[in-house]
Input
Amino acid sequence: MAEQIGSIDTVLVRAAHLTAEGRPESAIAMLRPALELFPEHSAAWCRLAAAQLDAGEPGESLAAAKRAMALGERSWAHRLASLALVELGRYGEAVVSAREAVRRDAADWRCHVTLAEALTHDAPAAAVKAARAAVALAPDQPRVHEVLGDATVATHDWPAAESAYRAALRLDPANDDIVAKIDRLVRRHPEHPERRGRPVRTRAAPRFGRIERVCLFLAVRRASVWQAVGTVVLLVAGLPSPSGLLVWFGLGVVVFVGTLSWRGWLGLPPAARVPLPELSKREPLIAGSAVLLGVSVLLLIVWNVLLALGSAPGLVLVGSVGCAAVAVANSWYGLWRVWAGSR
Output
């Protein structure tokens, strides 16, 4: 029995590391067989739910969290269920689950943060109260101040939101998301009497959060990987001099990557389908990766045309490979940053 417990604990540690490294799919693949051996291990179900949430699978995450609840997990399962329900747009149920987490473990600041996130959509004033409770419990945690800033933005209390964001930034100076939130707040609401006006209760705008970012990064990464693979194959196959038959393979790569990109776009959550200029403000890495992918595809089309005309400079194809490779690297880094900052 001791060896069994030790083995599942090792799996949980490795799964946590994989998720933090931006590889939740690998964590899921490791956890599933472990749960077949240890189906009553509630922490393993929670770790699976966390990995699925980071992988952009809120429905599966909710199911795993419910399994952990049934096995008696104290509060982690309720927090995960609330986060999944928020991503699914079921805000009322998310609040119920988050309140249960707070009831079970009122001394855990993460429970209050989860409650604040669930309340922000429909009850921003109550979200502010929950976020302040989290700040009181863990004033040295940047996340509690960031969530307080998000909640106060929803109440239109601009000075309080800016103060909360700046407190979070002092604790985590390298957090680009907080910097972006402060910049947007100052740019949209400069020094003006309205900034110090009485807070107004309003329903929050559609949420562009972690799941939306993860889904966008995954969609761009998937298309960029296949674009990079296709162009590398063309580059190698064309040595020392490309054959005219490669035009058809190049055309196939363009069509395949274009279809993959279109299907990825259609599969995105509604809140993630934002125009490129707006996306460049919300998540520059995603926008940059998408632009690089587009440039890579365009260069491949140019190379195909030139090859069909009898002249295909290798530098054009090398440029296409390079743009696709940088798009893949950007997407990996962006996913790692989102996942590493979510725990």
